[in-house]
Write a structure and sequence with these properties.
This protein is mainly beta. Helix content is 11%, strand content 27%. It has a five-stranded antiparallel β-sheet. A two-stranded antiparallel ribbon has the order 1-2.
Length: 169
């Protein structure tokens, strides 16, 4: 413990090769003497920024983008939405469809069919409306077996721009 009588010798380094021991307080005071206040002040307040430093600034890189060992950013191809049922349904909002649903362990009805205008589709749900009654129905994706539409569907496969060409059968 330091009782205030003897100065504490703060040293850096512990005998490992390449590390030189130096007095921490001496090194710190030497650094303070060489420190200059940046000149980018305005109205008494220091502006944040690079402080005039313009050398060797790394390039801005999008998250997940690859870089070469030389520091060049490798461009990534555009990301497309994956082909999930919810995305296909979203491309076809406003179309009339027949939705076939199955409900396990239901004593009243195991399967049910809903027909209506597709209004919304999310990760776990579908909202349709019945034009005859005007009521809205929320269907859960977990119960969806398949959907039938009586008109062509809009469909965009990931990585393909636009609709693929229609082929005759």
């Amino acid at each position: 413990m330091n009782n205030g009588m003897t100065p504490v010798n703060y040293t850096i380094g512990n005998g490992y090769p390449g590390l030189q021991q130096q007095n921490f307080q001496q090194g710190f005071s030497q650094q303070q003497q060489g420190f200059q206040q940046p000149s980018n002040t305005q109205g008494g307040c220091q502006q944040r920024g690079t402080g005039g430093y313009t050398g060797n600034v790394p390039p801005q890189v999008m998250s997940g983008a690859a870089m070469t060992p030389g520091g060049t950013v490798v461009p990534t191809p555009p990301q497309f939405e994956q082909s999930y049922v919810e995305n296909i349904l979203r491309l076809n909002l406003g179309k009339v469809g027949t939705f076939y649903m199955t409900y396990e362990n239901n004593s009243q009805w195991n399967a049910k069919v809903f027909k209506g205008v597709l209004e919304a589709a999310g990760r776990d749900h579908i909202i349709i409306s019945e034009p005859q009654t005007g009521r809205r129905i929320l269907l859960l994706m977990v119960n969806l077996d398949y959907v039938v539409f009586d008109e062509p569907l809009k469909y965009q496969y990931p990585g393909v721009v636009g609709n693929p060409p229609q082929t005759g059968r």
